Amino acid sequence: MTEPKEQVKLAREAFNNVFERFNRFRGVQTQNNLSLSEAEGLQKELAEIRVKHTGKKSDITGLKKFIGQVMPEERAEFGKLIQTLETEVSQSIAEAENTLKSFVENAKIEREKLDVTLPGNRPRVGHLHPITLLRQRIEEIFVSLGYAIEEDREIETDYYNFEALNIPEGHPARESQDTFYTTNGFALRSQTSTVQIRAMERRGVPIRIIAPGRVFRRDTPDLTHTPMFHQIEGLCVDKGITMAHLKGTVGEWLRRLFGKETKIRLRPSYFPFTEPSAEFDFSCFKCGGSGVFENERCRPCKGSGWIELGGSGMVHPNVLRACNVDPQVYSGFAFGFGLERMCSLMYSLDDIRLMFENDVRFLEQFK
Ligand code: 2NL
Predict the structure, then answer these.
(1) Ligand 1 atom 4: residue of nearest CA
(2) Which of 190, 228, 267, 271 to mutate to test ligand 1, by most ligand atoms within 8 A of the CB atom?
(3) Ligand 1 atom 1: the closest Cα is on which residue?
(4) Which protein residue's CA is at the shortest distance from atom 20 of ligand 1?
(5) In 3D, which of 150, 342, 348, 140 has the Cα closest to residue 230?
(6) CB 335 within 8 A of CB 277
(7) Which atom of ligand 1 is the closest one to the Cα of 197?
(8) Which of 38, 69, 113, 234 is 20 to 30 A (C-alpha) from 306?
(9) pLDDT of residue 29
(10) How many whole angstroms separate alpha carbon 39 and alpha carbon 351?
(11) What are phi and psi of 269, to 5 degrees?
């Protein structure tokens, strides 16, 4: 049987062995190169060491239980030795714990430190395309007049793109020279009338809608043409609708857009889907219709005082019939115009292709 004193010595050695790595955390703290997670790992290990070397199953607890079996004359000394060992062990652990604890606290504060006076990174904020901005302004006006906004597909059947619109077989618009076709015989819509036909079929009449959207025509790009552009078409069908309603409606939205002095005029024209048909012009927003601006020939209206905007007319009876609407009971007007043309007039752009290049130097001018 090992000497009692010897057993205390062995217990001390065992502890010292395990604790050696933590000695550097005792006493006055010098710089340590720990990361926060390393320090937290050490705290965990240290907690285990505390349990193992001071807890119920520790050598120290075992030795204390052993006191009763030691010869009475050696008991006091043995007890003191254990006491000293216990104090040493718990002090060592407590010192290292304190050091690690304050290191972890400081490291966390450091990590969460935020200098609110540093300049921030301003995010680059985009904005809407001028075509979108103009479309939204026009949509708002028509919604306030009781119109609904309709959207639909861009790839259409021959029926909706031509047939239902009273565009006869052999009409130039139907040729592949003018219209894009898919290899399996569908057409890219060449006007958004297709949307209005579908809406009339689905919703029936009376109906008041506008149909904004992309349309496609096989044009070679130049100053005034692109093979894709945006259109807004409008349709109003009810009992007793006349050309007076057409003129009143077109006049009203142009006055809301360009000011209450704006005049409009209708010029006789021809479209297969309307009868009678008319093109509509409005008095120039720049010169107010005089044709002269700052003593020079006004640019947007080329000195005429009028700007040609779009086409319109009374919906052809054949178109109404195609949508199951009785032309004896109902009548309606329709109109259509191109947004790129309108936008380039309003901003004096000389080349509509600018609107398709998405050069930020161009786009940023419309903020
Ligand atoms: C133009 C001419 C126009 C229409 C579009 C239309 C729609 C239906 C029935 C009858 Cl559902 N007509 N739309 C009518 C006249 C002219 O557009 O110059 N567009 C750029």
Answers:
(1) 335
(2) 271
(3) 311
(4) 337
(5) 342
(6) no
(7) 11
(8) 234
(9) 63
(10) 67
(11) -150, -170
Q: Which amino acid is at 117?
A: T
pLDDT tens digits for range 257-305: 999 999 999 999 999 999 999 999 999 999 999 999 999 999 999 999 9
User: 111: closest CA among 39, 160, 161?
Assistant: 39
**Lookup result for tokens 């161009």:** 362
| Three-class SS of the chain | CCCHHHHHHHHHHHHHHHHHHHHHHCCCCCCCCCCHHHHHHHHHHHHHHHHHHHCCCCHHHHHHHHHHHCCHHHHHHHHHHHHHHHHHHHHHHHHHHHHHHHHHHHHHHHHHCCCCCCCCCCCCCCCCCHHHHHHHHHHHHHHHCCCEECCCCCEECHHHHCHHHCCCCCCHHHCCCCCCECCCCCEECCCCHHHHHHHHHHHCCCEEEEEEEEEECCCCCECCECCEEEEEEEEEEECCCCHHHHHHHHHHHHHHHHCCCCCEEEEEEEECCEEEEEEEEEECCCCCCCCEECCEECCCCCCCCEEEEEEEEEECHHHHHHCCCCCCCCEEEEEEEEHHHHHHHHCCCCCCCHHHHCCHHHHHHHC
pTM of the predicted model as reported, rounded to 2 decimal places? 0.70
The phi-psi region of residue 21 (left if phi > 0; otherwise alpha if psi is between -120 and 50; otherwise beta) is alpha
And the tokens for 157?
Answer: 């059947």
CA distance 42 to 46: 6
Pairing of strands 148-149, 207-216: parallel
Kindly report the backbone phi and psi dihedral angles of residue 195, in degrees, each rounded to the nearest multiple of 5, phi listed first.
-65, -40
Ligand 1 centroid, distance to 270 Cα (angstroms): 10
* Atom 5 in ligand 1: residue holding the nearest Cα: 336
Residues in the chain: 367
User: What pLDDT, in 10s, does the model give residues 325-359?
Assistant: 999 999 999 999 999 999 999 999 999 999 999 88
Ligand 1 is surrounded, with C-beta below 6 A, by: 193, 196-197, 231, 233, 235, 271, 273-274, 310-313, 315, 319, 334-338
Which atom of ligand 1 has the smallest separation from the CA of 315?
A: 10
